[in-house]
Amino acid sequence: MSFSLSGLGSLRLWCALLALPRQWCDRVRERRRLSDLTDRLLDDIGLTRADVEREAARPFWQSLKPGTDRASSFTAGE
User: Fold this and answer.
1) CA pair distance 11, 69, nearest whole angstrom
2) Residue 7 counted as domain residue
3) Are 24 and 61 in contact (CB under 8 A)?
4) pTM score, whole prediction
5) CA distance 55 to 48
6) Positive or negative torsion for Cα 18, 16, 62, 41
7) Which pLDDT score, from 0 to 100, does residue 8 have?
8) Total domain count for the chain?
9) CA nearest 35: which of 17, 54, 19?
10) What per-residue confidence (pLDDT) applies to 69?
11) Distance between CA 6 and CA 46 in Å, rounded?
């Protein structure tokens, strides 16, 4: 059995497309959790309420950090 490079590319594309809904849900959940933090906790991690509001206003399909798929290990409560 042989695999073509175009076949592997197609498989990667399908895998990436199937992963999108989960990434979007993760972004929504992480932004909600970030919004729930107190101002003191935000200060502890170097963020302001304005930073959080700006992040929460972004559409779910946009990465939390430009060029990344996930937030920088923000997992409160997990």
Assistant:
1) 19
2) no
3) yes
4) 0.61
5) 11
6) positive
7) 77
8) 1
9) 54
10) 45
11) 45
Alpha carbons 65 and 75: distance in angstroms, whole number: 15
| Mean per-residue pLDDT, 17-22 | 92
Domain that holds residue 72: 21-78
Structure token pair of residue 35: 């919004």
Determine, yes or no, domain membership for 31: yes
For residue 37, what is the DSSP state? S
Residues 78, 74: Cα–Cα separation, whole Å? 9
Instruction: Please check whether residue 46 lies inside any domain of the structure.
Output: yes
Separation between Cα atoms, residue 69 and residue 20, nearest integer Å:
10
Mean pLDDT over each residue of the chain, to the nearest integer: 81
Q: How many CB atoms lie within 10 A of CB 34?
A: 21
CB 66 within 8 A of CB 23: no
Residue 2 is assigned to a structural domain of this protein? no
